[in-house]
Predict the structure.
Amino acid sequence: MHIRTRTLTTGRYALGCALAALALTLGAPRSATSAAAASPPNITGQWARYPGFARTPPDPKLVPPPAGKLLLKTEYAGPYEKRRAAERESDLRGEPIAAPGTDCLPYGMPEMMSAIYPLEILQTPGQVTIIAEAMSQVRRIFLDKPQGKIGEIAPGYYGHSVGRWEGDTLIVDTIGVKPSVLGHSEMPHSDQMRITERFHLVSPDILHDEITVEDPVVLEKPWTFTFGYRRLPSYEMLEYVCENNHEYVDDKGVTHVRLQDH
């Protein structure tokens, strides 16, 4: 009888422990990692380049890291350096060589992310949309969808972007940018270019976009640089239509400013 009583008591104790553990599990708050995975940070809003033209000095802890070195393969490095030298000389003469925006062409990817004018980011279910005020450029990042294969994506200015949240970081993969669209710092590229972005809030109102460009045809090694943005809580995006600006390109490819009649 003593043995049976002890067995029943032990069984009741084990059952009680199991029920208590279940209650703690169901009632326990989710870990920070689980919460982040379920609720990605809110990056919706208007953003300006950081550091940019803010009146207050930038916080050194929030400034993006310096860009890596751009290493082009020999057959691309020569023409690239020649063009950059010509641009420097023309700037000194006050006759800058035409940029894509002057010809009313979109900057495309990844240069539209340089935020010459502010950007607007919209988070919606299944998609993150980025709108650049400069020429109203729009790119769509499709979330949690497979990427296509290089060569099967119709080439365009912004390519085809898919993304996913990993904790508090939005990772975006872009392919399909046509070779006529010059990259950051006018980097040339082939149809094999792949762009990987990592969007991450380094503070509630400072966002970094770390960009790595890979191109086995043009680059000796991947090139990484980071754009920083600061949130503009009360900014309203404006219409930017290229035809309304005051720049024009002459028959020699030189940019001029058109003066209005008074």
Residues 45-88+104-242 form one domain. Residues 212 and 224 are 4 Å apart (CA to CA).
